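Annotators were shown the component list below and the corresponding predicted structure, then asked to write short factual statements about the assembly.
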Amino acid sequence: MSTTLTPPEADVGARDRAIAEDKAADSRAKRAKLVHYYGMPLFLLVVTIALLLYIQGSELDSIETRALATDVQLDRLQQHLLLTGVSTFFVLLLAIPLGIAATRPRVRRYAPIVIGLGNAGQAIPSLGALALLFFLFRTIDWLPSTGTIPVVVSLIAYSFLPILRNTMVGLDQVDANVLEAGRGMGMSNRLVLRRLELPLAVPVILAGVRTALVLNVGTAALAFLFGGGGLGETIQAGFQLNRRPVLIFGAVSVAILALLVDYLAGLVEEFMTPRGL
Amino acid sequence: MTDQTNDAKQYDKETAIGGDAQVGETMIELRELTKRYPGEETPAVDRVSMEIPKGEIVVFVGPSGCGKTTTLKMINRIIEPTSGSIIIDGEDVTNIDPNHLRRRIGYVIQQIGLFPHITIEGNVGTVPRLLGWDKDRTNARIDELLDIVGLDPSVYRSRYPKELSGGQRQRVGVARALAADPPVLLMDEPFGAIDPITRTRLQNEFLRLQEELQKTIAFVTHDIDEAIKMGDRIAILKEQSHIAQFATPEEILTNPADEFVEDFVGTGATLKRLKLTRVRDIEVVDDALIGRLDEPREDLQKRLNESEWTAMLLLDKDNKPARWLRAPDFRHDRPAAELGLPARAMVEKQATLSDALEEMLVGSAGVAIVVDGRGAFEGILDVDSIITSIQTMRDADAEFYRAAKLIDPADEVA
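Structure shown to annotators:
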């Protein structure tokens, strides 16, 4: 029997190699984690510094100086965040409950229609969607045709569908056996929803929220069309005045904001995904 | 024809080996239970009536699509019956709040359906929490149950389902169903999705558990062998859940009610009956030559040489079988714990003869070691005793068929 075994020396060597491999895999995983958590903020910091250095280094004329004044830009940033935040808040408030309602057994057979509409809605370009809503607001007298409200409404309409769709898909993909086990133990429908369906759908729903947020940051850059403010104004100014530093500053700052929001939403997603999944 | 089978059945009841089938109190009664899905012409389940005695395992078995699962799921009204009624422990539960009903009935499904985002303790504690037990009571119960199903609470309590193997998950599923100590358990192919070796082990464990718990169990399977092994009674179902035969496994094997049952049970009835007889039912050698791991090897050698046995079984300090020793093994200059061959092929008393035979063939020692639930030595089972019991069975069968033949002519006259 002992003759078929490998000599002990070889064994020891193999074990050492295995330990070394384990260690290497371990440190690789650690490094991946570091990159995962700190890579994006670091990158954004570098880009921000580069942008500021570029502006500092350019010889700005009076128009450019005025357009890029710190308080003006901070104002626009604030408007931009407000537009994104408020519209996302209302979208969550509307689309998630609707998504839950649309997946209840009684109306479930209509779910494919809703999802189809959602997909079709997503295919309309954001500028087109905004323009349509803009005309809608123009033609109805008692609605304000400029300012924050039409912009927020447009953003809600535009990011409504990804969240609705993800809520429905998220709830749909929950293992039917888990739900049957829950019901079989005497959980009411409400409890099954709260304790099983929603927690298990969280990752997919949050992915939808993340998409909607990033979408809203980008689409809010078009708010200037309604006179809604935001960082889009800077881009617009850059075009109209034909000033390259202004244009670059506006465009890059929107991009940085979108990436930052995406990163933060990703952290939230990770944090809120239940353990064990 | 029907008269003949009825007579034969009666004959069998009187003479069946180990036929301890006395009709006790009814725990679950189905009355004309029917399920008709909207838009379908024939009902999925058509007027099933059945009584399930208290403390027994009744297995519903039949080809796929025969409505056995639908019938089972109507008992806890996961599927609402179209008509008919369900009586549990004397109470008509057909129209009571289904959620309250289900908290009183344990439910195990094939895919187990553990909640993946909740720890094992959370999973097992689900029903106690729904029933509003206080924390201490729930916690104590969780520990107790995990112990019962053979999972160390200190290790597994705070794990998540994905960190467990298939067999372990199934144990948690059983623990979860037993949490609030329900008198009734519904099991839908509970061991269906598990590898054969683990399945056999879980089946044996479950039977041991049932001996203590004495639950009333409705059990669905498509596997006739599992039905024979697990069931105190078997209901063989045809399409629309029509009952082809409802009887003890012995009766079904020796006296199938019709061709359908005969076909379904299949050939090799003697082999199947090996699955009916358990190790505890036949004689086990309990005076085998036993040694201890910590005895001096000279003593072991002396005893082996003086005995008539060709081999000696060494037990460790917990009485668990450790190694087989034969006389030539003493030529090697090694401690007793490394001499001879490791002891394999261990079976519990609940195991069937078929399990034991399989273990013997795998273990290549020609004998199986009988151990108790904790793995401590109880005796030795050899091939001869199994062959003897097959012989007995065949003799009994022959007698039965002779008797059945005697009935035959009379039947023709009538």
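Statements collected:
1. Residues 1-10 of chain A have pLDDT under 50 and may be disordered.
2. Chain A touches chain B through 22 residues (CB under 8 Å).
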